[in-house]
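1st attempt posting a full record on here, be nice pls
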Amino acid sequence: MPNTDALEERILKRIPWEVLAISFLLAVSAFLIFDINTGLFVLGGGLFSALNFVWLRLALSKALLRGKKQALKTSGLVFALRLILILIIFFIIIFLFSKKIIAFAVGFSSIIVVLLIEAVAAMSRLKTWKN
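the predicted structure (as tokens):
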């Protein structure tokens, strides 16, 4: 069986690229069905989701290297900042491009599809089921 840490690291590095690939496919579909702006908002949502995932991963990696008390303070601040940034982006899109918020949310949610695919792939790699 391959080294679990190396496998996890490969998966974590692959996830943002898969999010971008799926959001690109969704963006092309949205462009063909609706218009170019809808496709761009889907792609933008996927890009924002991928960047958000990378930021979360880096923040968690740094926080785990610190002591427990310091990690909790720093992590709380970083996660609050991320939440505020996400809300600001969504509010800007709601106020300026209210008809395209669904397109952005579709792209932003493409990470859910990627995580489901990765979960199914990880389950398929298991040789035995544990009770």
